[in-house]
Amino acid sequence: MEDSQAALEIRKKKKRKCLFLQNKCLFQMAEDREVLREVWEGKIPVCIRLAQDEVDTLKQPEPYLMMVPRLTYLPLVIDKVKKHFSPYVRDTEGDMWLEADNGQPLKWSVDEWLKPSIPDIHETGSNPTLDTLFPSTHGTGHDNHAPVTSWCSRHYPMGLLFDLMKAEYPCELIARFKNYPEDKMFLKPNKAAVESHFIYALKEADTLKHRKQIVGNMQKRDTNQLWLGFCNHKFDQFWAVNKLLMDHPPGQTFKAIPFRIYRDLQEPFLQRLVTPQLPTGEYKTLSHLLEECLGSDQYIVVTHGIDLSPNTPLQWLSEHFSFPDNFLHLCVFPKS
């Protein structure tokens, strides 16, 4: 009788454990979807004022308040600001630019030369390096004497800008129409340039993750849907296509992790070829990435305004915390 009762208790425990694991798996799936949504919905409160020495009317303009999506780029939102302040400025033909509270221009891009094209990862041998995979000569230790064919701008997502600035919220910015700082910001706000950067970054990320198998097979309508879903901040429209770039066969991972490390807006970003697994098959974590790229994991890493745990698996981070260009943009600060 006692043995029968014990067996019954064991069966009950097994059933409870099975239900727990099923619920955990279902919860994990829902939770991951919610992570994507929460990252997508991240916004920054911004207060923009017109520079006092540029007000040409007796009436003072009201500050322009906006909730800026962390994922977007400045040229995609600056037109609204310009329209708001234009009635208070005589000459609005010039390009409007923004100044941080420390008096420095808000730099939304970095400009660089490009090598001819992105090669197929198969053409680089069994142990490719970032030099053989990426045409960029910026910030990655490339041969700067290699042939170049065009000028490219890497745009900083708004969330990255404010994370690097360690901005307090609401973030205070100054709008200016005069004396555009061409010595510090070569590229003027331009939506076409942003689109070119966006599509190029997707191709780079696809080369790293899938050996160019996804974007290369997309039709024009697919890339248009990605771009329009991103511009219009439509989660479902964007992710209906972007999920193809995040998929991988069961039990497998991305070939490499698309990421860039930033320490300061005045310094070039750091980008290396890092795989998501160790030779043993174990998943690499953020701590491994820091060791490989910076020689130490004694850094605070911030993305989307969140301090990341060093134990977070790189594969999971890439799938859930990448920006719409499919890159992880990581701000690193030394631990005090």
From TrEMBL:
**Gene3D superfamilies, alphabetized:** 3.10.20.620, Phosphatidylinositol 3-kinase Catalytic Subunit, Chain A, domain 1
Name used for this protein in its record: Autophagy protein 5
Its ancestry begins with: Eukaryota, Metazoa, Ecdysozoa, Arthropoda, Chelicerata
- Describe the protein's quaternary organization and the partners it interacts with: Conjugated with ATG12.
User: What topology does it adopt in the membrane?
Assistant: Peripheral membrane protein
Q: Which InterPro entries match?
A: Atg5 (IPR007239), ATG5_HBR (IPR048940), ATG5_UblA (IPR048939), Atg5_UblA_dom_sf (IPR042527), ATG5_UblB (IPR048318)
Q: Which organism is it from?
A: Cordylochernes scorpioides
Role according to the record: Involved in autophagic vesicle formation.
Q: Where is the Autophagy protein ATG5 UblB domain?
A: 257-332
What range does the record give for the signal peptide? none
Q: Name one Pfam family in it.
A: ATG5_UblB
Autophagy protein ATG5 alpha-helical bundle region domain segment(s): 192-247
As for family, the record states: Belongs to the ATG5 family.
Where does this one sit in the cell?
A: Preautophagosomal structure membrane
Q: Which residues form the Autophagy protein ATG5 UblA domain?
A: 39-109
User: Predominant location of this chain?
Assistant: membrane
Q: Which PANTHER family match?
A: AUTOPHAGY PROTEIN 5
Q: Which residues form a coiled coil?
A: none
**Which keywords, in A-to-Z order, does the entry hold?**
Autophagy, Isopeptide bond, Membrane, Ubl conjugation
